[in-house]
Design goal:
Chain lengths: 235, 290
Amino acid sequence: MISFEKVTKNFGSITALSDISFEIEKGEFVFLTGASGAGKTTLLRLFLGEFLPSSGEIQVNGEKLSHIPEKKLFKWRRKLGVVFQDYKLFSDKTVYENVALPLHIRKTSSKDCDLKVKKVLEMVGLSERAGLFPSQLAGGELQRTSLARAVITGPDILLADEPTGNLDPKTAKEMMALFKEINKQGTTILMATHNCDIVDSFNGRVIELQKGKIIRDEKEAKYHKKEEKIEKNDD
Amino acid sequence: MMIKTVKEQIFRSPYQSLAAIFQVTLAFFIISIFAVIGYGSQKILYYFESRPQVNAYLKDEAKTQDIDSLKLKLEQTGKVSKIVYSSKEDALKIYREQNKDKPILLEMVTAKILPASLEVSTTSLGSLKEIAEMLKSSTIIEDVNYQEDIVTTLGYWIEALRKIGLVLGIFLFSVALLTILVILGVKISQKKEEIYIYKLLGATKWYIASPFYAEGIFYGIVSAIFSWSLTFGLILYLTPIISKFFNGIALFPIPTDLILQSLGGLLLLGTGVGFLGSFMAISRFLKSAR
């Protein structure tokens, strides 16, 4: 479904991603791991069409992203949901308005919009917070609002960039339960994370990046390589 | 939704919004004042142009058939719009009317000593000299005088005024455009993060840009209404003074359709400046980010 074919991205003389190739099947849950600066965010931003690869190709269901003209990019982005570490919510809009925004952009009728927002807020457990502004919410609630906004349109693919980065372990666990639930419904999830506990508890696919290159791509994997873990236990 | 967004954008930074409105109002006000002065000076010029411009005093011995023949000759040039013959008696009547408060002057003058005359109006200022020369060369004409200087000078002034108005108008149009461009540019850069989120959520460029177009047009329209009100309010206030100064020239009342046309023109100008300014501001930003 999703394929990266020898993708390289340079920013001037700096190579952010080098010769990246992998495929993701529909409905997969994939963790992108690696230290800061490994290229996780660059990979997600390439996928969002924010910039084009310096070389190589990204394809989704046979459609080449580099062939999408800038004017039609919005159509591609409407197929995606995005969750950010810093939530990226509108501070002057309520939880309800923030979550409804993708539907307004798509000119969904008010009635449909209302039904969908109520349903998704119930799913993330924020029905009681619908009228509050972001400044009145806790970190976990902010991230759940961000997640609700990302999934309200029923995207095929959900991208998450360090979604638990600002959350305490308990809240992060709750968030991951929501991601798991969304993944069960058939949404492909590509999540960049540093959180080893989450990755380990999930036992999903891990693509590890280091200095812009894939150094590991394992299914049913843990955050650290097996040999690394053994080394740690020996210590 | 869009109206709400535009309202928020305007009231979130009220000083910037006010600065835009005041600056554009000032530019439009000066433009409309120049337009009104242009209209008024045109009326004044028309007044002078439509007055008898060449007065030719006939010799006492001039015969009716000679006068008719001269009139015909003048009409045949195609440059004459009106010829009025004043007999000696008509001249006396005019003299009496002009000097009715001075009985001594009236006693001394009879129709005999006043000349009959031809008052000739030309179709354009350019023909004035030619007609005057033609009259001077006639054997039945004693003397000729015409308001060449006043009309020519006025013509020069109006032409200069038009040129200054045009240059100033272009300059002020640019000022208004740049004001909206800069103020919206600042607002757009303040909303950079929001625009980025909108893009990632799949918003079209139109969805992102339309509140800014609406804001620019709003500034233009509000400024147009303010400057129109200021201009015609000022004219209304100054009407007695202007009327007294230009006594005899029918400058007032300004026709209602002209007042409405001015409003329409300013609204059009405001909409154009607002749209163009916002278009330039948002295009620069949207071009820089995918």
